[in-house]
Amino acid sequence: MSEKVNPQKTVKVRGIEIGNGNAQICIPLIGKSESEIINELENIKTKNPDLIEWRADFFENLDDKEKVIEMLSIIRSLVETTPILFTIRSTKEGGNSISLSEEDKIQLIANVCATNNVDIIDYELINDKKDIEYLREASTKYGVRLILSFHNFELTPAHSVLMDKFIAAESFGADLAKVAVMPQNMDDVLLLLQATQDATQRINIPLVTISMGKYGAVTRMFGFVFGSTITFGVGQSSSAPGQIPIEELRSVMEIVKKSS
Quick one: pLDDT at residue 260? Predict the structure, then answer.
């Protein structure tokens, strides 16, 4: 079994410690309307996730800042102390189709940071350096944590490429570095796990790593053993290929923890 993450590589949000060799379970909200999100959230709450991600790119009123902020306020009131991760993904980032320009998108994320209703934001490494730096500054100002992500929904890049993504995220001042890739076979899954383990020895921030699809499902259950600190499960609806129902995910993870 691999070494656990250095205990110093942790991030705390609302009393939840991300890192230190454990993994927190995050559940996505992908409803389109206020009523759908509330219904989805009421179902998810009973499952006691460690974090909740609002995938706002699914929200039908994403182009209305006030409605986004209002919806976020409702989510916060319903989840109470559970940390909220706020994410907008465009189609090029593997997300839903959105009408916002990149400039509008980053401004909305910055406005959301100012509400004090989000704890973490997620932004893609493929975006312009100036935009990443702008959101790092905005999130820091309001005490919001920043995940810088790399997604590849087609394949699993080489080990050196994955390491470069972790290093880039850290160099931009991210609080967490995320890599999610698509495997073509189990060798690709092992590659992702090896890169995760190697990065825990070089990177001084917590990592979030996922191998997607049917081959990669094991990384959602066992990835924390190699250094991944957040895993994404299904509460009501899946937001990415290979996600596992939270009940099954938690059960398997507990068994692994007891045997380690």
Answer: 63
Smallest CA-to-CA distance from 219 within 182, 166, 174 is with: 182
**pTM of this structure:** 0.91
- Residues annotated as catalytic are 151, 178
Classify residue 80: in a domain, yes or no: yes
Residue 101 is part of which domain span?
A: 10-259
Q: Does 36 appear as a known binding residue?
A: no
Domain count, the chain: 1
Give the CATH number, domain containing residue 67.
3.20.20.70
- Is 55 annotated as belonging to a binding site? yes
| Residue 143 in domain | yes
- Bridge-partner residues for 210, per DSSP? 180
Q: Is 102 annotated as a binding-site member?
A: no
Reported as a single tens digit per residue, the pLDDT across 115-169 is: 999 999 999 999 999 999 999 999 999 999 999 999 999 999 999 999 999 999 9
What's the average model confidence in pLDDT over 68-82?
96
